[in-house]
Write a structure and sequence with these properties.
Layout: E1 3-4, E2 18-26, E3 35-43, E4 48-53, E5 58-64, E6 73-80, E7 87-93, E8 100-106, E9 111-119, E10 124-129, E11 135-140, E12 145-150, E13 156-161, E14 168-174, E15 177-182, E16 187-192, E17 197-202
Antiparallel strand pairs: 1-2, 2-3, 3-4, 4-5, 6-7, 7-8, 8-9, 10-11, 11-12, 12-13, 14-15, 15-16, 16-17
């Protein structure tokens, strides 16, 4: 499984930028059948996710992202879980009432199975999972936090506060740590998941 990401700095601009999650799993690991490969594309300005058959490069389905709030929802980033059982995406409300949310998609049916409330005006950016697919981690740019979600119960279990003016955006998981790109500072934050320790590594710049 590979992940290719394109991102934009300002979550409030409705630009036609796509964020990809390439998903491949053996269905017999989940159910039964043959190899399935899909590409999931988060369409930020269109309130939907496009599913592409990676074998044929043909359009397969559009997943409508709507929660009944009446506010426009922008899907910013999407990530396939390492175990191939779920696909996760960050969704931001463009209004002032509805919560920003993380959604979970069943890759066998391409239906949204979970809506996880995070909070109003969190500005969710990227999402990753640990190597065992036990927890998901979403960066919240506008609140300077990284949110931890139990991938089995779909409950927010911890928040890591990075400090003012960090504005976390992209993040990656490796060997028990999260490496977080901070947009508005000259550091990269490193979170040790086991004890919640956070250190900032200077990266230079202006």
């Amino acid at each position: 499984m590979n992940l290719i990401n394109l991102s934009m700095k300002n979550l409030k601009y409705l630009l036609a930028i796509c964020l990809f999650a390439i998903f491949g799993c053996k269905k017999e690991d989940i159910d039964s059948g043959s190899l399935t490969k899909k590409i999931y594309v988060a369409n930020e300005g269109s309130e939907n996710i496009t599913v592409i058959d990676a074998e044929t490069n043909q359009f397969a389905k559009v997943i409508k992202v709507a929660n009944g709030s009446g506010e426009m929802l922008m899907t910013h980033n999407i990530q396939a879980a390492p175990d191939g059982r779920t696909v996760w995406a960050t969704v931001n409300s463009m209004g002032s009432v509805a919560n920003d949310q993380v959604i979970v998609i069943d890759p066998l049916t391409d239906e949204i199975t979970k809506w996880i409330d995070i909070g109003v005006d969190f500005g969710l950016a990227h999402i990753v999972l640990d190597s065992n697919s036990n927890f998901a981690y979403a960066s919240a740019t506008d609140t300077n936090m990284v949110v931890e979600i139990d991938a089995r119960s779909y409950v927010v279990t911890r928040t890591f506060r990075l400090g003012a003016e960090h504005h976390p955006h992209g993040l990656r998981y490796s060997r028990g740590k999260l490496y977080v790109a901070d947009l508005e500072s000259d550091v990269m934050s490193v979170i040790t998941i086991s004890d919640g320790t956070i250190i900032d590594l200077p990266v230079g710049g202006i």
